[in-house]
Fold this sequence. Notes:
Elements: H1 3-36, H2 41-49, H3 52-72, H4 78-105, H5 117-171, H6 174-190, H7 192-212, E1 218-219, H8 220-238, E2 242-247, E3 256-257, H9 261-272, E4 281-288, E5 291-297, H10 310-323, E6 328-331, E7 335-341
Parallel strand pairs: 2-4
Antiparallel strand pairs: 1-3, 4-5, 5-7, 6-7
Helix pairs in contact: 2-5, 3-4, 3-5, 4-5, 5-10, 6-7, 7-8, 8-9
Amino acid sequence: MKRSNYRKIIEISFLILFVFGFRVLIEEATPLFEKQLNLSFGRFVMKLLGNYPVTFFMLFVDISLAYLINKYIKSENSFKKFIGIVSTAFFVAFFSALWIRIPVWNKGTETILFQDIYFNLTVLTSFVLNLVIISFIQVYLYYVKSHEKALNIEIGKKTRAQYQYQQLKRQLNPHFLFNSLNVLDFLIYTNQERASDFVKKLSSLYRYLLNTEDLKSVPLKEELDFVLLYYSLMKERFSDGLDLTINIEPNKINHHIIPGGLQLLVENAAKHNIVCAEIPLQIDISTEQNYIVVRNNINLKINTIDSGGIGLKNIKGQYKLLFKKDIHITSDDNFFCVKIPLIEI
């Protein structure tokens, strides 16, 4: 049996013992309310709630600690949250009972803490009350979290659909295809061997895009191979006007990134800058800590069509919604740089 199964058995056993022990405690303690205080459990609860400062204290601490439990115990581990809820309920109950009984003890009563039956019953009553309150708050927070998660999934689906649509447009981009066909036409007449190689690379390019369009991430190595394939096609068109250097740390090669992310950044660099032999467009791809960095020199075209940064917005949206990570964009008069988080799978 796996270790996780043993852990589940232990957790369930603790929960069963707690419920059983709590039930026995209530059954044994209830007669004390009538014998010692001449009050029923319900009347004692109402009397406790009649102390407004204590009630306000309990509610304030219950809400605050419930939010802290929900914030710092992010896993769906019910046992950890259960321990947090029980501990919180007892903590609030204990200090609420102290609040009520300390003024009485200060008047000369010798019995203190657990020797005081009224203190014990106050702790028990407050514990039950706070346990119910915190449990209700946790149910509410769970509902809110589930609702937000469902909303984020829907937003993610919408953003992913937009991203896939952009991929589809890029796959069928008439401008890129038109330029590629022009290059192919030239190669057919000048060098049939290079023309054949160009067709194979173009076919591989589109095959990769089709094979990865439904994937959340791909290994960095595969994306780099794809970028090199794309670069070799661009090189047939721009020749000495385009230069790509790649410097990747070996221990980062098996990390993941979103499919088509690097290719899109290389494409954007060529789309927005002048590419010529006199002033070559230099694109550098490297790793820096847990990021892959794409950096190019700036030599903007005069009549560049403003795309509204749709490509970068899609990359940013994918990382934010799928991996809860941000991309970083910096630029100055000479260089444009984009840092994309590497994902450890």
